Amino acid sequence: MNICMVGYGMMGVWHSDALIGRDARFHTLVGRRPEAAREFAERYGYARWTVDLDEALADPEVDAVIIASPSETHPEFALKAIAAGKPTLLEIPLAMTLEESEAVVAAADARGVPFGLCHPMRLQPEYGPIREAALSGADPIRQIAGRFYIHRLSNVGATGYHRSWTDNILWHHFAHFVDLGLWLLDFEGELAYSFLGPLHPQTGIPMECILSVETPRNQTLLVSGSYCSRERIYDSLIVTDRQSYRLDILRNRLVTGDGPVEVAPEKDNLALVTQDFVAAVREGRQPAVPGRSVLPAMRVLHAAQMRWDAIHGRQSLPGRRLSD
Q: Which structural domain range is residue 29 located in?
């Protein structure tokens, strides 16, 4: 299968690593800067590289596309790949607005191509049995909490690379936890409370966020985070009737009432998404996380954004440019 990879940052690396030895050919690498694109293509053995996505998508040899570009480019690039009839795997987030999210999903449905989202938390092996036990009634979930705290006053990503784009705590990092929580609870979700901080004078973006979702079954999903924290925290806590599960994503450790155990790193879970996508294309099915299945999470994020807009005014921000 000839793969077109869009993006050469950390996610481009992780997706490419996941494809090694998987009967997939590194066909085309699409990047923004010629020198960086050429270096990445040569390092991984992509047959060609380009800075023109339209040119890559016009190639009939390309069988599938993985989009790992900056967040605000996701809807534009996904729409182009879908219009070209290419099965597409899109990195999180689906888009930076609900309107764009719905437009991309509608386009994929109309075109009838496999279209999946990279939500690796759903494929975390430890979460599946928790969800099954909850949905069967054997061990109902009471509460889910997700936390994402980092220190990011400059535009440097997890690898130490100074990026050309700006991140967004609500639409990117909270998308992980909100989607996970709604999936575990089997609930489409309505926002109960949200706080999205004011614009930071140095970064020009909101740096703190808190939101909660409540279900009719008296279950709660709480997500909190900050880009100003001196301590790095990236974990989830699930409390059920019989047990509690705290997954420390940074330390690859699951802590329950029975004690801690080591779990696979985040990169390995992302590889499951990549490999499932390739299998889905071969088998003519939808990937494990179909595009439409993440819309409930996007609606919750949209509600939080609407509350911020009502206070501060709807506006374009670094990393989230709005159309007129």
A: 2-119+271-290
